[in-house]
Fold this sequence. Notes:
The protein is mainly beta.
Amino acid sequence: MIKKLLLVIPLFLLITVLNYAGTTGKIAGIVTDAETGEALPGINIILEGTTLGAASDVSGYFLINNVPPGKYEILASGVGFQKKRFTEVQVSADFTTSLDFKMSVASVEVETVVVQAKTPMVRKDLTSSHTQIDSKTIKSLPVESISQMLTLQAGITQDAGGAIHIRGGRANETAYSVNGMSISNPYDNTQTVAIATNAVQELSVVSGTFNAEYGNALSGIVNTITKEGSNNFNGSISFYTGDYLSNRSDVFYNIDEINPLNNTTTEFTLSGPIINSKINFFISGRYSDDQGYLYGNRQHNVSDFVSKNPIDPNDISVLSTGDGEIVPMNSGWSYTSTGKITIRPLTTLKVNMDVIYSENKYTPYDHSLKYNPDANNPRMGWGLLGMIEVNHALSNKTFYTFRASYNIDDFKRYLYRLVDANGNAVDYHAGMSLDGIYADQRYQPDYKSTVLPAPIAFSAGGTYQGGGQSHFYQRSKIFGAKFDMTSQLSKEHEVKFGAQVRSYDIAMSSFSILRDTTTYKKATIAPINSNSNNKYNKAPIEMSAYIQDKMEFESIILNLGLRYDYFNSNSQYSTNQFLPTPNDPLVPSDKKDGLLADAEAKHQISPRLGISFPITDQGIIHFSYGHFYQLPSLSYLYTNPEFKFAVGSPTYGNANLNPERTVTYEIGLQQGLAENVAFNVTGYYKDVRDLLASQQIRISGTQTYFTYVNKDYGNIKGIILSFTKRKTINDIWGFTLDYTYQVGEGNDVNSDAFFIDLSSGRQSEKVPVLLNWDKSHQLNSTFTVGKPGDWNAAIIGKFATGLPYTPLLYDKQVYLERNSDRRPTYFNFDLLFEKAFQVASLNIVAFLKVYNLFDQLNENSVYATTGRSTYTLDANRAEAAETDRIAARVNGVHTSSEYYNRPDYYRAPREVRLGLTLEF
């Protein structure tokens, strides 16, 4: 931990990340005489508290470009005219804020006219679905993470594992970035670092057809813009805690034991000047410790075993040396911190230096280990992101941004750490040599048998269960650099172009711990050249360039762009499907020539088009179209890169995979119904091709292997209806309501139905089925009410149809058509209430959060025989009766009904949390 934190100091000054999204917006408008309506040139428009501003030209037009997102006060002044100030002017990244000034002649010295700006409910320059969520909105809702905030957006769903899907796309088809810079680990397209909500200035979600500057994503872009330091010292400290309060003790073991400190969170922020108006800082941190809601009982230790009498099969004993302690089984902790220094050496130059560090450790629930919980493998990871951004305005219409980056993501999974020759634990990571490193001897069982005789049974000990004998390590290092230039060539044309490069160092190490099953004396790491030990270091490279023109006319707004992408895996692939294993000792040496070839470099051209038509002063129709490409997760390119021969049906990666591609169409209507009320309807269609598939290939007879190919396809179509009533100072309530109807289909590619038989040339047919994460109907709503600075209440409601599943005919033990039925519907409410108190200069906020307010028993996973989590027809099988017979006479064996009671098949029960925040 200390070593990792020491990295932060030099990185704070030197390193950074790569741009994937815009981080600034602009303000434009017309200045006229309030009496005559004539254009006024030479009026100065200033963003107070900043160095940004402009003067109106001969037509009264002004433009302030390169404005960070947030709320501003804007002052207009000119000789002979009364000053006018707009407050609460909201600027969002990638959008134009329109602001017109009508100036009155000042015959004598008068007070400045102050007007509160109102953000329009309809964005005239919106050419595809794009949502901005500011820090105030996030703070006012019962959410604690960016992921929770995303699930409130129309067209975004969660699968059974909690992964997020945008408009029917796969979970890994979304690109995540911070301050416009990627935080995606290309190994598996997960996020390298976590960002706490207290560090967020604005969250931008692009779920439609995105502009040419965005790349390597098929379904959506999520960009988090973090806060900058202020010119005044301010900060906050927050602590909240709670537990799960539920009467569902028949489902959730030990849920009725209340611990007020079961789930604790501590947060802080601090912001202020180092040199006023020249150098500012912002830091934040969040630590969370969650003991979860799924529990086990330590009846067995990992070293326990099962003793069987070889003469009398009924003579069975199970060693139970556990202490009987009730222990959490889906617990974890996480920590994240951010730091930013902003330097303004010139009025036209700004430098941001950011560091983000996060670390976590968690243990997912394993039902088979309910009575042997210490045998479960924890997951550990940490990520570090450093970034530097130089933003230089060449004029009030042209600026460029240069970014550079360095990113590390490290993940580990194992039961016991590796050790050195003296038995001391070693902090091993992917890419390290295993020389002088050994297996922990706790992996070696005292006796061979660790499996219970019952056909349906929990684990009774041993490291065979729960994957306890496997070790997995992965580390990615990412360097990137990007240059962007934006220029307002004229009132109508804003041109932006840029280029980027990303280089990767991808390391993976995976191996098994082997036991001496004869003498039971020593556990060893699988030999490096064996099938049970795989490792690699790969260095792929990625480059791209783009150009786009945003054309804003009175009657039409167009976004037109073109993007180029290049990728080289810098690896080899097998060229002969009949001989996929050139390292197989059975392959004659004269046939090995040419079996391996360097993977081809991949090139893509992506056109993008977005059009917006104002039909009234409060009505906009938009249409967008685009081609999108994304690289598959690199783990699929590099699986078993040495093509080791293996018995059975091995899996080989494919370094020559093509990028996946999607063509997206969208049409929508925005309509303002009143000053603070708007309606939106959007329809979309996605044609998805070349998706990754696992394909089984039969060489001859029963000899088969698996490899990855670009075979999957799908199509997603949907419509979104949304209604928004904005909360204002004079109107204390507001709400949002959105409904999504969507159908997502793809081909059925399970390994039993999708294969190529090279001996006959026959290829299986591909049958369209519902996607595993498809939800036909989804309804989201939020309702907020309160008095700003005094009290606030908010409630979130969600309803959705159940996810698909494949039914099993119990009598015949035959599966029906894949994903032909659905699980039960999902229904949930979350609540927030907070009250503020002023004590001297401190603002104290007490708050209550309740998740799953009505303690709804939402069924997440189901049994195939019933489509329910609550029961299964498998309980009537002979295996269940045999298990119950053994449980009646052998201590340590539990009944089948207890095994079939699966608390992990449900979403979390009601959780109540209380907290206090001090703001200064």
